[in-house]
């Protein structure tokens, strides 16, 4: 085999030449939304009726991003009065969601969390529970298939 | 004719510095006669921050050290805490950790190789490995919900069990990866421009590499096959059959070729680990509040970029008294000032890129 300067270059070009005819991998993002996996850690949803205001999420948060104000209701039980998550501090680590004993805080599949003003990055989850957003399964117990025993009665 | 040397700043906002590295080069015409590396532009004080966090709360911060290999940093930190507590990790969790860490190694080397080629001027070369890295990040985001800052490892195990989808996805990925590696070798290895810019450029001898404390692929390219996965196996690495790729020339080309070969070895390890994957628990039972006894502990592991070490001091409270990370990139770039001398400015870019360092890790 004879060799000349530029042989390797041509060999490399042959690879790029083949790749041109492959399928496109890029997504046209604002027009086509990406497929978000089910465990996604993005936005938050909060069920204030379920919350027992125990404050474990506040303790678990590494960055003090969660503000919880609690009060006593008529049965002398703790209930939340205010619940805010500052996304500017949030690391999306998921420790709050994992630690919640009553599963009242959830991740959602939202991912476009940029805001125009700084104050908009604080989520007031008590007044806007964000329940309609599609929820992620992160940190939630695996739902076991219900095995009903039939035929006993 | 009377000439004089002059100084120029390379960085901290130079696009080829992989972040914010600042190098003051003393130039005689085009040749470097002196060099001074300044760091600290990305210092976030992670070690100090960790002193105010409880042990599990430090894990998300370790993602931000070497942000191209978050899983490996997670792994090292939790291993150190486990060593301190004397916890036995369930076997399944150990296997999962090995699979994840090796996938992370592939993803990291894909960036390392791709960016290297791009810094040499071949922008096309960056996309082939990045497609592969994207597959891995997709797998990880399906597994733990995040693409870069995983927070996946837990003290005593892992956060989420891997499922059938993950295993199938990994198998599909591993099946097509060798094809891509072959394609990439064809694209790059014989390219005359690439060869003339990398062969015999930035040569580091074995003794030099040792004395500067280089680790990882940069050390192994200089002829010393030192890899903690073989020398002091952690997790279940001793159960797998794999080689440590070594090159002997110590130049930029060798650092590239060692990374490419390491990817192939990683494929072997993942395949073996998936074949042996046992059933069982993924997390050891630990008290809710983790309180190691007063004392200190050092642990190190082979990260994609070199040996990452963690030194932990506990005073018996739920928060660490002191956390220190031995970051491989920091040690690796310490040789720049020595190796740059005598090279041209353009070669210095090639040398820098071949080291595959991350400033998040250098400054911590």
Task: Please describe what this structure looks like.
The complex is a heterodimer of chains A (153) and B (364). By secondary structure, chain A is of the alpha+beta class. Chain A has a domain at 44-124: Alpha-Beta Plaits (2-Layer Sandwich), CATH 3.30.70.3270. Chain A has helices at 7-19, 56-60, 95-99, and strands at 44-46, 66-72, 78-86, 105-107, 122-124. Chain A has a three-stranded antiparallel sheet with strand order 2-3-5, with no helix packed on it. A two-stranded antiparallel sheet of chain A has the order 1-4. Mean pLDDT of chain A is 84; it is low at 147-153. Chain B has helices spanning 46-50, 59-62, 70-85, 91-119, 127-144, 164-188, 192-198, 206-211, 217-220, 228-231, 252-276, 328-332, 336-339, 345-355, 359-363; strands at 6-10, 22-28, 31-38, 153-154, 157-158, 295-303, 306-314, 320-326. In chain B, strand 7 (306-314) and strand 8 (320-326) form a beta hairpin. In chain B, helix 5 runs antiparallel to helix 6 and helix 6 (164-188) packs antiparallel against helix 11 (252-276). Chain B is globular and about 75 Å long. The interface between A and B is medium-sized, with 28 and 33 residues.
Concise summary:
The complex is a heterodimer of chains A (153) and B (364). Chain A has 153 residues and is α+β, with helices and mostly antiparallel strands.
Report how far the terminal alpha carbons of chain A are from each other: 85 Å
Share of residues in helices of chain B:
40-55%
Name the largest protein-protein interface in this structure. Answer: A-B, 28 and 33 residues
* Percent helix of chain A: 10-25%
What's the CATH C level of one domain in chain A? Alpha Beta
Shape of chain B: globular
Largest sheet of chain B: 3 strands, antiparallel
CATH topology of one domain in chain A: Alpha-Beta Plaits
The total strand number of chain A stands at 5
């Amino acid at each position: 085999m004879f060799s000349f300067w530029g042989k390797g270059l041509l060999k490399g070009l042959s690879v790029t030449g083949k790749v041109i005819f492959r399928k496109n991998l890029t997504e046209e993002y604002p027009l086509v939304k990406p497929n978000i996996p089910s465990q996604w850690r993005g936005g938050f949803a909060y069920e204030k009726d379920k919350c027992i205001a125990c404050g474990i999420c506040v303790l678990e948060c590494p960055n003090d991003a969660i503000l919880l104000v609690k009060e006593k209701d008529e049965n002398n039980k703790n209930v939340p009065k205010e619940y805010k998550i500052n996304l500017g501090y949030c690391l999306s680590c998921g420790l709050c969601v994992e630690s919640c004993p009553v599963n009242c805080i959830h991740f959602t599949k939202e991912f476009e969390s940029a805001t125009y003003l700084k104050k908009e990055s604080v989520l007031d989850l008590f007044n806007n529970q964000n329940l309609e957003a599609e929820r992620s399964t992160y940190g939630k117990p695996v739902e076991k298939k219900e095995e009903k025993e039939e035929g006993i009665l | 004719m009377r000439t004089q040397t002059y100084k120029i700043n390379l960085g901290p906002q130079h696009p080829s510095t992989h972040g914010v590295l600042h190098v003051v080069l003393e130039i005689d015409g085009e040749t470097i006669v002196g060099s001074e590396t300044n760091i600290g532009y990305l210092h976030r004080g992670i070690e100090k921050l960790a002193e105010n966090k409880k042990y599990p709360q430090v894990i998300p911060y370790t993602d931000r050290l070497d942000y191209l290999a978050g899983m490996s940093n997670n792994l090292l930190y939790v291993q150190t805490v486990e060593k301190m507590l004397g916890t036995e990790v369930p076997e399944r969790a150990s296997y999962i950790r090995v699979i994840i860490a090796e996938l992370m190694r592939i993803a990291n080397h894909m960036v390392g190789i791709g960016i290297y080629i791009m810094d040499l001027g071949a922008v096309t070369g960056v996309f082939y490995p990045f497609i592969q890295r994207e597959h891995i990040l997709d797998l990880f985001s399906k597994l733990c919900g995040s693409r870069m800052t995983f927070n996946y490892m837990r003290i005593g195990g892992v956060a989420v069990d891997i499922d059938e989808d993950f295993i199938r996805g990994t198998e599909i990925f591993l099946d097509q990866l060798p094809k891509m590696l072959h394609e990439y070798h064809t694209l790059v290895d014989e390219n005359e421009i690439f060869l003339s810019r990398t062969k015999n450029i930035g040569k580091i001898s074995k003794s030099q590499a040792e004395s500067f404390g280089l680790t990882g692929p940069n050390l192994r390219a200089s002829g010393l096959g030192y890899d903690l996965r073989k020398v002091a196996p952690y997790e279940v690495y001793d159960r797998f059959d794999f080689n440590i790729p070594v090159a002997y020339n110590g130049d930029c080309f060798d650092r590239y070729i060692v990374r490419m070969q390491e990817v192939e070895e990683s494929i072997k390890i993942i395949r073996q680990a998936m074949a042996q994957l046992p059933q069982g628990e993924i997390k050891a039972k630990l008290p809710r509040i983790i309180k190691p006894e007063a004392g200190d502990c050092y642990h190190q592991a082979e990260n994609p970029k070199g040996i990452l070490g963690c030194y932990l001091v506990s005073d018996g409270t739920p928060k660490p008294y002191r956390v220190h990370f031995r970051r491989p990139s920091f040690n690796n770039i310490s040789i720049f000032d020595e190796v740059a001398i005598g090279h041209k400015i353009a070669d210095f870019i090639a040398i820098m890129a071949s080291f595959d360092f991350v400033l998040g890790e250098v400054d911590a």
